[in-house]
From TrEMBL:
It is an enzyme of class 1 (oxidoreductase). Its EC number is 1.2.4.4. InterPro entries: DH_E1, THDP-binding, Transketo_C/PFOR_II, Transketolase-like_Pyr-bd, Transketolase_C. SMART domains: Transket_pyr. Its cofactor is thiamine diphosphate. It comes from Flavobacterium solisilvae. This is 3-methyl-2-oxobutanoate dehydrogenase (2-methylpropanoyl-transferring). Residues 467-641 form the Transketolase-like pyrimidine-binding domain. Keywords: Oxidoreductase, Thiamine pyrophosphate. E1 component of the 2-oxoglutarate dehydrogenase (OGDH) complex which catalyzes the decarboxylation of 2-oxoglutarate, the first step in the conversion of 2-oxoglutarate to succinyl-CoA and CO(2).
Length: 801
């Protein structure tokens, strides 16, 4: 591991030592990039994207980066990670090879491409570490500018810790809000909307964020003139510059090859952000990309000779070398020695990483070859099995696909032989050992996961009267904010007016503008605020006003939040609660039920669909005792319906992954969720009048769905199944049907074809009858159930049409 060397007061000799040490870190990083490309081109690695050309500004950033700070960057920050002591040569190459052991690739255990960096916020049991005692990097993602929304939340956490009372004991997460969130991005990616949305939001919120733009004049092969107005991001952001009368940014521009000025600039930026909580933009221009964008192509195809010559001269390492020599900080000979030593160290580190990568697979290869030869000795298919064994043994550097494929093919040859059991057991044990290396930690594996919670029923006074359901939510939020000082909520209209449906009425006045906050119309960064703050120990509730508006944030939910635990192998988490409302709306843009799209895009986030506000409140209470993210979809048409007020507000808990039978019946099982259940209940009363007894099951949560398999138990009694929802055909209803028929094996109990009833394929019209003619009505459900019963018993239930 390369240890950073930082001192506050140093002699000239110490200064020389420090800057030459910096040069060595940069040189090692460059050699890793150069050798890494070769590893890809020779086939040892599949893809490479490196930080060459960006080394010197990252040294300056690292000098200003302190314990407790967070980075939210992109895939070229390897020098920075080396400079803060969080990335060794061996780990760099382990990431490039995709080593599935966290001890070798601590960034992602082979789940992300090389160049995607993370530190460990959690220990092996999923418990928080002391984040203020280490330098932190939130886990990178590849989608360009996708790191920006999260960056906003990481910075906002410092503002919360500095200004909100009751968080004095959260010293593992913050030291009086002095932490800075550091963002990095390539200049071309500043064209993304997420960049501008985040820049604007950070200026409004005035949070300690330092944003570095690495500008090498290209985005892959596309020149800046096609990317940015005026070809200059700092120039067009001048309007964000703060002045005596207005808040805003401090904006700096600096050459990416100018080491001393870079160091001074980053120190100044850190002081402004850390002390004043003012965001800073640093535009680092005149950078280069010596090997082009990635290993997928060569930059000689799109850069002319003049540009290539300029890049050779103004390569930041070449310029740093000149500066060291010109200022008598090192001789050419001394730097040559550093260059040669760095090359040797990188080569040795690469070899060690490769040996560590292939060694366990060679052992597994040898184990299987030995077993196959033993099986072949008594098999009728000896010749064929020995060929498989020899083919496997001849692979010099096997991968696990080679191993398990060979075993499974041989199993077919001995299906009628006694040795089948031995090989089948080996395959089973091998799969159980290896599969988690690729599949674990989609959800929390700690003792705080959602399935570890127990249901607590709401309790009521005998004299309790029914109230508007929104009051149950409001008073439960009041109990939550009082119980958990780390909990806060924010969104469009969530603060001053107490949300559009008054579920937060009076909460801002009671708990302050930082804990119950309004937000601008910017859904992606509302999500980002929540992700970043949750990564720093707070318990945010991010409110998206309506379910349809979630589409603005779905990319962040899918690519960042949903994958966080998975892509860090359980070493980072963001237990964010996303609150929204939907179902049974009218109008193309407010139809409220794109559930199939959501559940298939955000695996890794729980999706909860309570039918009323008491159930919703119970979900919030449950989630705050867990360490996983979730989306809660409240029923928009349920706020004014009447519900009794529980006496154990903040304490009752709705179980996650557990369905509820809300009406027993014997003839058919109907499964649904949300507002549609009320329509099904109406239809079931009418069906009972013609002798059809419906059992109604409320799914309550879609992810996870019915962990106790109660739906299958119901079908075993009724022998018929209908799934109803208001999503498009093939959406969430198809998912539920697959879960019941395939996962729960309910097919074996069916006497009739299992069916779904969904909305029409189009979105509802705004007209008064748009809902009725677009989504399932009570009459639709009556006739669908009746038709199923007619098919089974036509004499008892003659055809309606």
């Amino acid at each position: 591991m390369i240890e950073p060397q930082l001192k506050t007061e140093i002699t000239f000799e110490d200064f020389k030592s420090e800057v030459t040490h910096d040069y060595k870190i940069a040189r090692i990083s460059r050699e890793c990039s150069l050798l890494g490309r070769k590893e890809v081109l020779t086939g040892k690695a599949k893809f490479g994207i490196f930080g060459d050309g960006k080394e010197v500004p990252q040294l300056a950033l690292a000098k200003a980066f302190q314990n407790g700070d967070f980075r939210s960057g992109y895939y070229r920050d390897q020098t920075f990670m080396m400079a803060i002591g969080q990335l060794s040569i061996e780990q760099f190459f382990a990431g490039l090879y995709g080593h599935t052991d966290l001890d070798f690739d601590p960034m992602s255990a082979g789940r992300q491409m090389g160049g995607h960096f993370a530190t460990h916020s959690l220990d092996e049991n999923g418990n928080w570490k002391n984040l203020t005692a280490q330098k932190n990097s939130s886990a990178d993602i590849s989608p360009t500018a996708g790191q920006m929304p999260r960056l906003l939340g990481l910075a906002q956490a410092s503002k919360i810790y500095r200004n909100v009372r009751g968080l004095e004991n959260f010293t593992n997460f913050s030291k009086e809000g002095n932490e800075v969130a550091w963002g990095t991005i390539g200049n071309a990616s500043t064209s993304e909307g997420l960049f501008f949305e985040t820049i604007n939001a950070a200026g409004v919120l005035q949070v300690p964020m330092v944003m570095s733009v690495w500008d090498d004049e290209y985005g892959i092969s596309v020149h800046a003139r096609y990317q940015t107005t005026k070809e200059n991001i700092s120039e067009i952001l001048k309007g964000f510059q703060r002045d005596e009368e207005n808040n805003g940014y401090e904006i700096f521009t600096v050459k990416g090859w100018d080491y001393p000025t870079l160091v001074a600039t980053y120190q100044k930026a850190a002081a402004i952000a850390r002390e004043e909580h003012v965001p800073v933009l640093i535009h680092v221009d005149e950078l280069t990309q010596p090997q082009g964008h990635s290993t997928s192509g060569s930059h000689e195809r799109y850069k002319n000779a003049e540009r290539l010559a300029w890049e050779a001269e103004f390569d930041c390492l070449a310029q740093m070398r000149n500066w060291l020599i010109e200022n008598n900080l090192a001789t050419a000979e001394e730097l040559d020695e550093i260059d040669e030593t760095s090359r040797k160290e990188v080569l040795e580190g690469k070899k060690a990483a490769w040996n560590a990568f292939v060694s366990p697979m060679k052992s597994e290869q040898n184990e299987l070859v030995s077993l196959l030869n033993s099986i072949a000795s008594t098999s009728e298919n000896k010749v064929f099995i020995e060929k498989h064994a020899n083919d496997l043994a001849s692979i010099k550097e096997p991968i696990r696909k080679d191993i398990i494929t060979t075993a499974r093919k041989v199993l077919r040859l001995i299906i009628k032989e006694n040795s089948k059991g031995t090989l089948a057991t080996w395959i089973k044990n091998y799969t159980e050992k290896i599969q988690p290396k690729f599949s674990s930690h989609l959800f929390s594996q700690s003792d705080k996961n959602v399935l570890s919670t127990k249901a607590v029923e709401p309790t009521y006074d005998n004299s309790a009267e029914a109230v508007d359901a929104r009051l149950v939510l409001r008073d439960n939020f009041d109990a939550i904010f009082n119980k958990y000082p780390e909990t806060l909520i924010f969104g469009e209209d969530a603060g001053n007016i107490g949300d559009v449906n008054q579920g937060l009425e009076g909460m801002q006045e009671k708990y302050g503008e930082l804990r119950v906050a309004d937000a601008g119309i910017r859904e992606a960064t509302i999500l980002g605020q929540g992700i970043g703050m949750a990564m720093r120990g707070l318990r945010p509730i991010a409110e998206i006003q309506y379910l349809d508006y979630l589409l603005y944030a779905i990319q962040i939910m899918s690519d960042d939040l949903a994958t966080l635990q998975y892509r860090t192998h359980g070493r980072q988490k963001a237990p964010l609660i996303i609150r929204t409302r939907g179902h049974r709306l009218e109008g193309i843009w407010h139809s409220g039920s794109p559930m199939g799209m959501i559940i298939n895009a955000i695996r890794g986030i729980h999706v909860l669909v309570p039918r009323n506000m008491t159930k919703a409140a119970g979900f919030y209470n449950t989630l705050l005792e867990t360490d996983e993210p979730a989306l809660v979809v409240e029923c928009l048409n349920g706020y004014r319906l009447k519900e009794k007020m529980p006496t154990n507000l903040g304490e009752f808990k709705t179980p996650i992954g557990v369905v509820e039978t809300i009406k027993s019946g014997n003839d058919i099982t109907v499964v649904s969720y949300g507002s549609t259940l009320r329509i099904i209940e109406q239809a079931s009363k009418e069906l009972l009048e013609v002798g059809i007894d419906v059992e109604i099951i409320d799914a309550q949560s879609l992810l996870p769905f019915d962990i106790n398999h109660d739906c299958a138990k119901s079908v075993s009694k009724t022998n018929r199944l209908l799934v109803v929802d208001e999503d498009v055909p093939g959406g969430a209803s198809a998912f539920i049907l697959q879960q019941i028929v395939e996962e729960q094996n309910a097919y074996q109990f069916l006497d009739s074809q299992p069916q779904t009833m969904a909305a029409k394929a189009h979105r509802p019209a705004y007209g008064t009858d748009g809902d009725y003619f677009s989504k399932p009505s009570a009459e639709d459900i009556f006739e669908k159930v009746y038709a199923i019963m007619h098919e089974a018993m036509p004499e008892k239930y003659p055809s309606l049409y």
